[in-house]
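Dear H.,

Thanks for agreeing to be a second pair of eyes. The structure we're designing against is below in token form, covering all 352 positions.
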């Protein structure tokens, strides 16, 4: 069943209910994922495949080959297990930002499906999708988003109808920093969860831990962040013979405190009382805990979606695709080229 989306922003489309399922395709970096939302915006489970490099970081071309190899069977599994093909009324895909070769695989799958099913195509902004899935699922209204993922670390707030980046990393994403540190210790990608486990072990073995001798550089630069210095200093601590568990704990304490400090300043400047976490690093219990303490201290609230919606996933792309269909218009084939460097504030926020 195809909804009438011929009149952009028409009142009929602004009802919260559209008849049918929006499929979402995510392929910005290491994850190829398909998910969906139903007419009321309730997400399905996403079915995903992750690139896990045997050694080194993610190579864009190899990741794109991985996505191309997995796209067909993920789509078949999704249609077998999650939605009936006849219920699909639109195909949303990550148009950017991300790695060009990876984005192009997702976009090609999306275009082919949209043409085959004769339904609209909706290109969405991956960073905005993290915000909207969090807002919809956590029931928060007007948050500051701390988006902490592999490739991105941004603090974002809605001002004048756009999500504005108030602070961001000047070098590598926080997840990337954790993954690089882990890789040097022989821990495979993704390194963040194992660093969390080792840090928790250090705390169990040392109920009153001290940062003496484990200090790392200050990562805050005005409203921005930088993680290369912390990474190098943490590697030096390990070389100097400090226990790996202790360095993992210190690394988390320093890097997360920096993110929380910038998020707090953004809340103060923008006059917002809600904080929302997104991105894979938002799976980390220590980061979640620090965010709640900071928000509580300010009389605010910290929200975090379930872990499967923090990491890159197809359902969040479908969530934003559905909103764009309700409030905007679909993406013409001629406008569907991927945008590697699409900025968060380039996407107009038409919905409330
Ligand atoms: P994303 O790029 O948003 O899909 O998230 C992937 C990133 O999240 C990788 O850099 C992971 O190492 C990181 N990550 C996932 N789980 C955790 C965790 N529990 N603690 C810290 N980082 C994590
Ligand atoms: Mg992401």
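And this is the sequence the design step returned. I haven't edited it by hand at all.
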């Amino acid at each position: 069943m195809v909804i009438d989306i011929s009149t952009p922003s028409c009142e009929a489309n602004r009802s919260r209910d559209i008849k049918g399922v929006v499929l979402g395709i995510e392929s910005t970096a290491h994850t190829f994922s398909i998910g969906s939302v139903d007419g009321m915006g309730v997400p399905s489970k996403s079915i995903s495949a992750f690139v896990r490099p045997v050694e080194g970081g993610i190579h864009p071309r190899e990741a794109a080959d991985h996505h191309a190899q997995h796209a067909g069977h993920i789509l078949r599994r999704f249609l077998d297990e999650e939605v009936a093909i006849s219920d699909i009324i639109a195909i949303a895909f990550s148009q950017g930002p991300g790695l060009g070769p990876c984005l192009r695989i997702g976009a090609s799958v999306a275009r082919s499906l949209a043409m085959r099913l004769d339904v609209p195509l909706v290109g969405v902004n991956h960073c905005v999708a993290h915000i909207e899935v969090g807002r919809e699922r956590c029931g928060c209204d007007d948050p500051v988003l701390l988006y902490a993922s592999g490739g991105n670390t941004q603090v974002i707030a809605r001002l004048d109808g756009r999500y504005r980046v108030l602070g961001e990393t000047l070098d590598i994403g926080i997840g990337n920093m954790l993954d690089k540190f882990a890789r040097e210790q022989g821990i495979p990608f993704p390194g963040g969860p194992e660093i969390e486990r080792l840090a928790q072990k250090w705390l169990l073995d040392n109920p009153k831990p001290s940062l003496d001798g484990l200090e790392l550089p200050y990562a805050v630069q005005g409203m921005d962040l930088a993680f290369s210095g912390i990474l190098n200093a943490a590697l030096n601590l390990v070389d100097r013979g400090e226990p790996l568990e202790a360095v993992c704990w210190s690394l988390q304490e320093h890097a997360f405190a920096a993110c929380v400090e910038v998020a707090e300043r953004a809340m103060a400047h923008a006059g917002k009382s809600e904080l929302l976490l997104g991105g894979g690093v938002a799976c980390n219990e220590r980061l979640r805990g620090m965010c709640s303490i900071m928000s509580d201290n300010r009389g605010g609230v910290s929200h975090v979606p379930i872990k499967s919606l923090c990491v890159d996933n197809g359902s969040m792309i479908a969530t934003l695709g559905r909103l764009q269909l309700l409030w905007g218009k679909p993406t013409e084939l001629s406008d569907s080229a991927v945008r590697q460097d699409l900025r968060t504030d380039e996407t107009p926020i038409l919905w409330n």
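Two observations from my side: The first strand starts at residue 21 and ends at 26. The domain at 2-134+311-346 is CATH 3.30.420.40 (Nucleotidyltransferase; domain 5).

Warmly,
E.
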